[in-house]
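Comment on both lines for my students:
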Amino acid sequence: MKEKSTELFASAPIPKAVFTNMIPAIISMIMVMIYNLADTFFIAQTKDHLMIAAISVSSPAFFFFMAIGSLFGIGGTSLISRSLGAGKGEKAKHISSFCFWTGTAIGIISALLIHFNARSICYMIGADGDTIGYATEYLDILSFAIPLLIIGNTFSNIIRAEGKPQIAMIGTVVGNLINIVLDPILISGLKLDVRGAAIATVLGNVFSAGFYIYHLSSKHSMLSLNPKLYRAGEGIAFGVLAIGIPAALNSLLMTASNIILNSLMSKHNNFAVAGLGVAMKVNSIAVMVLIGMGFGVQPLLGYNFGARNKERFNGIMRFSLLVAFIGSLVMTIICYCAAGPLVRIFLDNEQAFDYGFQFCRILIYAGPVLGIMFIFQNAIQATGAVVPAMILSVCRQGLILIPLYYLSNHFFHTPRALTMCTPIADYSSTAISVILFIYTIRKYFGDAEMVDKIEQEL
């Protein structure tokens, strides 16, 4: 008898299945976005643009460890959903145990390395003499959250693979709400400034990680954290890392591209750096909603790929692309029209505001296709197609965006030209994702022998 939680994947009407998984994922992403905006907003109330710049400079380090969580979260989600679709529930428990204990070990080691080298790392990622003090304070305290951040980011993804999107949402939403509530108390009330923002982040992650651990240790979960079920063999480590590494690489290259962009932008002035940081956070309103759409459908697609249900897989893709396209248009219009008021919330300084407003509108130029790109990207990950997933991960940041930054800086040397690189890379990556998806589906669903091979690996 099928687990009730997976009935949604296998037999529910497609619109119901898609929205039931999409909506909690979107809400989770919105809460992450609100948290990012809240940190910047309350720091902005200090009227110190150097603190805002320091937070912007430190952000890549935060995203680096989210990438580690993505390695186990997205890789684990893909393998677990395909395993459940193939009727291999016991293997799903081995996979979740592997992801938890390996991710936790990496988190503890990373926390120690960051804590004892925070100042040097801040210089490496773009801090200068004006911002190094604030950036170091922020990153040093944030290091204590690294193991929790990895656990939270891992299992906010993996729990969706067992058909529990609401549980995944609760952990993310409440953890971020705790962070948001603590921000004004610690930053303004106790005058802790950037240290307060970092402490709030640590405490929010304590709840999220603790909540997921509680759920996974209960009888209500199909998964397990039991160390006795830890397995790296049987294709588990390879299956998780084969999709997780491209996903993490995408996040790491995004972190690298942000470091490079901050570094190049800082050669102009700190007003441009502050404006860019705020513009990217405002633009994340659209990006997080659209990422949530892609995350939401990945377990659905993975389950039906594992079950070899081609008709349902294709139906989910068609409906998801329609929803993503409409959502992309709506979010683009909102972000473009509201750019001025949204940027003004965070920046009073006129020079910084001018940069932020200009950058915000440039970044949303590719908005209409972002949702489509995220659906195709998650669909490729859902199938476990290693090479296409790796190509897509490397292309946008490593082969397109980062080279564009250097070319733009060399030939134009203006803040506006640097920012224009992002929408150019987004349109290019969307085209590449469509081509890779078509290739993947023709190869895997069109080739019975290939599908049998994947099933054997599961």
